[in-house]
Write a structure and sequence with these properties.
OB fold (Dihydrolipoamide Acetyltransferase, E2P); Lipoprotein; alpha+beta; 2 domains; 5-stranded mixed barrel; 2 helices; single chain; two-stranded antiparallel sheet
Amino acid sequence: MKYLLFATLIVSSFGCQTTSPSVQDQENNIETGIENDAVESPTSVTTANPGEINFTLEILESFTTSKEICGVRRENVLKVRVIEVTEKAMGMSHIPNANDEILLNFIVLPRDLNPTVQLEVRAKEFLCLDASKSYFTVISHKILE
């Protein structure tokens, strides 16, 4: 008897979960409105890989010795000014803005880089130990000027 009552309860609960057509129409209208109102700016475009960012930058200074980033000494560090963020991924903690000056870590430092040279780079964000700041390591780059 308990099993029959339990089965009846389950069957009746599935029958009550239908929504009226007016609610479905309202949901469709909301979704359509969001798609129509969406304006993509360069910083709202996302990349395929989480934690990665593409930006255009200008080199301000190249360090010949190791430089400290987040309390750790790193080789191949450049001080750069961000010109434009072209793509960003989901899950970014600290996204630099235009005209921000940041230290950028390269895996392999490119040759023939002079101040005022502009680069287009893809970098991966890494959190510092205290997680209040982050730094970027360049994965790939292209010299623009």
